[in-house]
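Review form for a predicted model. The reviewer records the input and the model, then writes brief findings.
Reviewer: anonymous (R2)
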Amino acid sequence: MSNHTEHSAPAPGAQGHIRRIVTGHDAQGRSIVTHDGAAPSVHTNPKRVGYCMTQLWMTDQTPAFVGNEADPTSRPVTLEPPRHGSVVRIVEFGPEGEWLDKIDTQSTQEAWAAIGTDTASTNKHGTAKHPFMHRTQTVDYCLVLDGEITLVLDQQEVLMRAGDFAVERGTNHAWANRSGKPCRMLFVLIDGQFDPAIAATFTDAH
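Model under review:
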């Protein structure tokens, strides 16, 4: 059993509630709404205080299949998108506090396992710049919706506020909310392939 909490269709105003509208086609090929309600795949994490991830949609291939397929977010949650596919989600990051100082490598592994990955973490020995430093073989589009957050990289840190947008190209990074207030972000992750010359330089054993 994964170490996370999943809710079904949270009520309006509840953490993780996103009204999701999905379109499709009827038998005559006319445009219709196939889903209109709270996105049902909502995940919290006991190792990350205030964290909440709402899965909105996924694609399984490129070009994406365009049809009336079943809701792909009903599958078990994974951090990475499907191979050759994509995932779009909204994540709320709670403010960091004393709880972060208690995160050891075991807690880090449990936190990542709760969202379906055992390979993303680069904090292998507890000496990473941030406990949740990680890397995925994806191109990520990252938009701050509310609040502010710090993008932590190996050599730099960048403060982002509502309306700021980042393209995260498979780099070792973490999201640090030092603002004292929740921060909500929209993420689109697109499966990719590392440039072999860049991948050969990775030494992610911190």
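Findings: Helices lie at 98-101, 105-114, 196-199.
Further findings: The chain has three helices and twelve strands.
Recommendation: see findings above.
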